[in-house]
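When time allows, look over one protein, given below as sequence and tokens. The question is which stretches look regular and which look disordered:
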Amino acid sequence: MLPETMKTVEMREPGKPEVLEVGERPVPEPAPSEVLIRVTATGVNGPDLVQRRGHYPPPKGASDLLGLEVSGEVAAVGDSVSGWAVGDAICGLTNGGGYAEYVAVDATHCLPIPKGMDTTDAAGICETYFTVWSNLFLDRPPAPKDLLLVHGGAGGIGSTAIQLGRALDCRVFTTCTGKDDIDYVTKLGAERAIDFKTEDFVPIVREAGGANLILDIIGGDYVARNIKAAHADARIVQLAFNGGSKMEIDLMPVMLKRLTYTGSTLRSRPDTFKTRVAQDLLEKVWPLLAEGTVGTYTHKVFPFEEAAAAHALMESATHRGKILLRP
């Protein structure tokens, strides 16, 4: 028997982390194509912070609650769902609604929790693995020893990109700062950790031959510097603009080097695309998770009552790996 109501994390209004507070709502009914997940934990991600500030509204028809990934167990299944049963251990990518005790999720955007992985930790895999895989590697297998430059290597996206890059035989360089971060990303498989406070990544990467693939979450002056650090025919993928999205740059090197500069947000992509990413991950990445070749690293788990503290920690950029919330 399902309860009628559930605990949630609500946003009183757009603003700082302090606008988050515990609330209560009716338990959602799954649509025919959805599963209802009893949430064990939910991930805290960059888009949650942007939505909390009032700049990233949910897609039409999606929950207004924050939360783009969850783990837990199947509590109910929609009439047209196959392959899932009540009680199954599950993790999933949501369009919102993860900051709750229950969330309805498209069944084809869900995956089994990898063998041997803790259910709480599994809350931190979907958003980063869907994002990194779809932007860097889906239908684009890297050549052996391609140089992958990952900015923000100690965060959730960066940690995932480093591991997947190494698993696919890339040379991985990454930017971070401080001994603890450098030790962390080195253990993940980074060949070279560049302390951005004391080193300039551009000459370091150019001396190594130039980057064939760059993943950037910074923006700002990094945009022009990425272009300088890129090898001919490189691809630069922009996933966030923590350093600003407006800048003046010289685009001539983009033409001369035949660079591809692209970016995306996962949440607004069609459901069919997310289904294809899920299927590709299940086939190519979930075995790597099960065998421990790649993984997820949980920095800290907060209760729903401390969601504001979780967001403050995320904004401080002092975490390594994933920040999670538990009901």
About this structure: The CA atoms of residues 69 and 93 lie 5 Å apart. The two ends are 19 Å apart (CA to CA).
